[in-house]
Amino acid sequence: MSNEVTGAALARVDQSIFDKAGKVLAVHLSYSSRAAQRGRTPAFPSYFMKASSSLAASGSTVERPAGTELLAFEGEIALVIGADARRVSVQDAWSHVAFVTASNDLGVYDMKYADKGSNIRSKSGDGYTPMGPVLLPAASVNPAALRIRTWVNGEIAQDASTAELIFSFAQIVADLSQQMTLKAGDVILTGTPAGSSVIVPGDVVEVQVDDEAAGLSTGRLSTTVIEGTESFAAFGNQPKITDTDKIDAFGTAAAAGIVSAITGKEALTDDVKEKLMSVATATISGALRKRGLNNVSVDGLQATKGMRKVIGTARTLRYVPGREDLFKTHGGGYNAQKRVIDAIGPGEILVMEARGEKGSGTLGDILAMRTQVRGAEAIITDGGVRDLDAVSALEIPTFHNGAHPAVLGRKHVPWDTDVAVGCGGTTIVPGDIVIADADGVLVIPPHLAAEIAEEVVESERQDTFVFLNVKNGNKIEGLFPMNAGWKTKYNQWVADGEPEF
């Protein structure tokens, strides 16, 4: 092996380490706890790059740029390559790592939208990759049993073990070496566990990595946040906060103060679900209307499974009108349509905005089958469906706007996922509760789910009482709605156990 990084055991991070770092590579998702927060577990690692000029030593400061709000920390374990690696095997990869140390993958999420996935502006600022303070020799630690902790102002924020890694450090090194030569001195940030969040000027963030069995520790890597005085110039992108980026920065929708898929799942408890599923959609519609919510139905769709009722939280996919050049850049490969279907899971319903366009399919039997295999509750589209007979034969219910033999690109470009969409005349936000059967598709705001569930069970009970009395020959006057006399009879009927008559 050539170009070996040399250094004594437990050497400290200093400028010489930064000078040797030709590139800084970072993993998107690698800890199971973080993947659970994001609602997706990748099959393979994916990466982005940070500028080597973002490297900094322990005790440094980091600016939150003027005009921004969402500077976030991510405590991580950094690997320092010790010998060039090109197309190395997983079995051999760890031998190419010289040191392990603590790092902080800082990023300003106000600029993430402008990066279009590259993270160049959001994560490559000066001081955005502090490392240290001590380098642990890779040969002396167990990479599968390292502990990483992060403190903010002395309070623990992250505490995890590499035992929960989705991808081993060796796999990450080997995978990266397939396409590029990892040079001695290069740095790899290996991802962060759950618990990262937004920090503000004055906060002190500390990260530490330990091999407790070996008695080795990096010590605490300390970084202090300061307020920047320079705003972004008008000739470049300006800071902008989106709900998605805000959730990513804070770690969860609840921490960000945003109703999202996570909030919807929390609202749809087993008790709430059972109550909502026990009543007619018309009853739920009435409860929503009483609260001033009239435009909460997805209209004009057909159901492949007749009257079968489904309920779940919305995952959304938006198609934009077909344009040949855009389809070339967004329609092929692992596009937004395939990504959301691969990420959907139990308790979720795929909702697709197709603008009511019937002149093309929005999915066919293969992707419908994948949605079913992923455990989703249903598919809803206000566009057409290809292979309708095959889709109808699947177990998963599909609500659609008719059959069409044409492929996606004739009318649609799959554009983005987990954003607010318009489907069948109403707006659906990721995490909204959707309940559907052949009588209709309704959207329930998560924060109203529990109170509506209580109300509709009582309303349905009253409707049953009225129906039985009408069936028994009673006239409508005074019964529907019930006057005082009928309410007395109703209360007695409930006390008697709601008998048939």
UniProtKB/TrEMBL annotation:
Residue ranges occupied by any Fumarylacetoacetase-like C-terminal domain in the UniProt entry: 34-224
Binding site for substrate: 364-367, 386
SUPFAM superfamilies listed in its UniProt record: FAH (SSF56529), RraA-like (SSF89562)
UniProt: Mg(2+) binding residues: 387
Domain of life: Bacteria
Essential cofactor(s): Mg(2+)
InterPro entries: Fumarylacetoacetase-like_C, Fumarylacetoacetase_C_sf, RraA/RraA-like, RraA/RraA-like_sf
Entry's Gene Ontology molecular function annotations: hydrolase activity; metal ion binding
Keywords: Hydrolase, Magnesium, Metal-binding
Name under which the protein is recorded: Fumarylacetoacetate hydrolase family protein
